[in-house]
Amino acid sequence: MAPCQPQEFLFVPVGGKAKISCVSNGTLDKLFRISWYRRTWRVGENPELILDWGEVTKGHKYNCTHTERSSSLEINNVKEEDSGTYYCAHFIYMSLIFSNGTTLIAGDSFTAKSSVHLMAPPSSPLPNTSVQLACVASAVGYMVHISWNLSGTPQKGRVVAMEEPGGTLTFLSYITVPRDTWYQGASLSCQVRFNSSSATAVHGQATRQEEVQFAHVCSFCIRSVLTGVILLALALAVHLSWTCP
């Protein structure tokens, strides 16, 4: 009986208030408890407990309200460092069951050097049974939200991130699709939301990679970023992933 959060992502201006909702399949009581956690962009970082069951406030920062089948977390005076993915979690029968999560982005992560690029396989078919595609958002100020669409159907990607020497971030979201689906002409797009601004990178069977929208950078630079982020992901001993039924 996993809880579910209807808001996939939420944009809030710095200094504003965020309200994140969580819906339960069961009645909330002492045996079916809800707690709130947060994860930042740092891959492999354990979720941080924000509010435990029974806590309705923590200082002037967090407030929580419960109904019979729902819970809402309020975050006051939102700052950039409050950005992250917030999860409600059921504690029942000695087990902790996480929801799908809501990504909160505070302020605007877009910078003058931000760019979005879609990495796709060559036009000639590969022998593999599947192909992996990656969407890279570089020179990002803080968290972003990356979404995928494959021939009109939303797709869920896996996201990793790394910090660049200048203090900006690079996010990489990747998905795996069947080989035949891709080479038979499927259209694919990834969208990166920075908050008030957004950029879209599109790549399809009939689209050249040079035509991907937004700034163009050399393929060597993209490969370097891609390689670094993927190596970071492979080095993880644990990769947490929660889904909403």
TrEMBL record:
Positions of the Ig-like domain: 15-88, 114-200
Top-rank taxon: Eukaryota
Subcellular localization, as worded in the UniProt entry: Cell membrane
CDD domains documented for this protein: IgV
GO biological process: immune system process
Gene Ontology cellular component list: plasma membrane
Keywords: Cell membrane, Disulfide bond, Glycoprotein, Immunity, Membrane, Signal
Gene3D superfamilies given in the database record: Immunoglobulins
Cited Pfam families: C1-set, V-set
PANTHER family associated with the record: T-CELL RECEPTOR ALPHA CHAIN V REGION-RELATED
Name recorded for this polypeptide: Uncharacterized protein LOC101731307
Organism from which the protein derives: Xenopus tropicalis
Gene for this chain: LOC101731307
